[in-house]
Amino acid sequence: MDPRLTPHRTDLAADWLQGQVEAERYVAGTQMQVIAPVADVRRDPRQDAALDTQAVCGDMVTIYEETSVGWAWGQLESDGYVGYVPLSALSKNLSQPTHRVNVPTTLTYTAADIKQQPVEHLPLGAGVTVVEQAGEFCRLSSGRYVWALHLSAIASFAEDFVAVCEQLIGMPYLWGGKSAWGLDCSGLICTGLRMAGIECPRDSDMLETGFGTPLGAFGDQALQRGDLVFWKGHVGVMQDQATLLHSNGYHMQVASEPLVGAVDRIAHLYARPTTCRRPPGLSAAVELQAQAG
What we know:
The structure is a single chain. By secondary structure, the chain is of the alpha+beta class. It folds into three domains: about 15-90, SH3 Domains (SH3 type barrels, Roll); about 100-155, Roll (SH3 type barrels), CATH 2.30.30; about 160-290, Alpha-Beta Complex (endopeptidase fold (from Nostoc punctiforme)), CATH 3.90.1720. The chain has five helices and 25 strands. It has helices at about 160-165, 185-195, 205-210, 260-270, 285-290, and strands at about 15, 25, 30-35, 40, 50-55, 60-65, 70-75, 80-85, 90, 100, 105-110, 120-125, 125-130, 130-135, 135-140, 145, 150-155, 180, 180-185, 215, 230, 235-240, 245-250, 255-260, 275-280. A six-stranded antiparallel sheet has the order 20-25-21-22-23-24. The protein has a five-stranded antiparallel sheet with strand order 8-7-6-3-9, with no helix packed on it. It has a five-stranded antiparallel sheet with strand order 12-11-16-15-14, with no helix packed on it. Strand 18 (about 180) and strand 19 form a beta hairpin.
């Protein structure tokens, strides 16, 4: 079992794993919801521990343990990742999001007035519960206000996941990041796909081995918009037949560049691309853009 996706330690495991793994005790877990704009998911219950991934406001988490020093150990509902989340970022009071943020980041206010001091930033994909529309703002169940055009109904999805990724060009590279404050390579891809209503695994190796349709080894096919190109430990998405979009440690941000240039540079430092895959359920909008390109 992949430890990234399996809520199992030698002393504790999820009850549904009983009979599959050995642990001192098994627990059912408690549903909690992310209330912070972004919640870091760390490998150990320490602020300086490795950042494995992130959850955003509105995400659900099954918690199996709450520590005495302010951490909760559990599993994200969105991509199944297991790790430690700050308890301060979670709530047991669950609400069903009605909308999600559709721009890289937006502000919340205490009143429907852009001259008010903002309270916090919410990232792309954050889920919120709208109570009513107040002019050009939406009032949330928290009592705060968000610019209405920055929200989409929860059942409304982007037609082109690549266009979502393109909104994040220039955002910083962050290992384990999955928000406008910083993204890693697979975090960028997953964020775009999620906004398009396409569920996917979190990490590049998981995407490469079990997501979408394999296109074979790199160089064996004509690529189109939306195709994923993989290196060992890295992934990018094609904007068209010749242009790659990826969050990477060379530019230290989300960057668009010619695929040939990226391949040559990365080959010089590491290796050439391994495989390519086409995500499932690409919309007509993506297909039309690919044909136009």
